[in-house]
Amino acid sequence: IPIGTEIEGMNILGLVLFALVLGVALKKLGSEGEELIRFFNAFNEATMVLVSWIINLFPSNLVVAAFRTIPIGTEIEGMNILGLVLFALVLGVALKKLGSEGEELIRFFNAFNEATMVLVSWIMWYVPVGIMFLVGSKIVEMKDIIMLVTSLGKYIFTSILGHFIHGGIVLPLIYFVFTRKNPFRFLLGLLTPFATAFATCS
Percent helix, strand and coil across the chain, each rounded to 5? Predict the structure, then answer.
């Protein structure tokens, strides 16, 4: 509100002054104002997360979105999944609306996806060899190899045993209880995803 007239816009100075007065008043209340302060802090964090999601839904640069997520005010490393997924959905709908004119671009993306999967399969075959030499070089640098092998063997055994109990007994039992079907026949169809997850440690 300038002198004499009103214009559209947020009165930042008034809001900041009100927030300062409210903060001082809550602090003066002592323990009685702590709950309200915690509420405002939680509300502020939730608002910042929501605003961050909205900003990331509309990336200004798709190449940057493939490498960076933009929270409030700063950039951090990490793929902007929200923005990329939204763009892919909108692009897919637009290409479908084009009909026959969009078929060429759809075929291009399908071919690009297949080529990427071939590259990933090649990498999956060679990654274990590289990891073997990487781990081997670290083992050679160790002084007490016997202790390392013993502790590592216990860890591997415990991990495999836990995965076997959970994946081979608990999950099939839950599947059988709810579906009354043979769970191991279903698990046979998951061998490829399991191999992919094991090879990529994901």
Answer: 80, 0, 20
pLDDT at 165: 92
To which residue do tokens 């605003």 refer?
51
Output the six-digit token pair for 107: 């075929």
Instruction: Report in angstroms the alpha-carbon separations of 199 from 120, 134, 152, 156.
Output: 11, 15, 19, 16
Are 56 and 69 contacting, i.e. CB atoms less than 8 angstroms apart? yes
pLDDT digits (tens, 9 = 90+) for 101-139: 888 888 888 899 899 889 988 888 888 888 888 888 877
DSSP category for residue 29: T
Q: Are 57 and 89 in contact (CB under 8 A)?
A: no
Reported pTM? 0.42
Model confidence over 36-82: pLDDT tens digits?
A: 677 777 777 777 777 777 777 777 777 677 666 666 555 556 677 77
More confident residue, 85 or 34: 85
- Tokens 């839950």 locate to 174
Q: At what angle do helices 103-141 and 191-200 cross, to 10 degrees?
A: 50
Write out the DSSP string of 169-191: IIHHHHHHHHH-S-HHHHHHTTH
DSSP string, 50-81: HHHHHHHHS-S-HHHHTTEE--SS--EES--H
The amino acid that residue 73 corresponds to is G
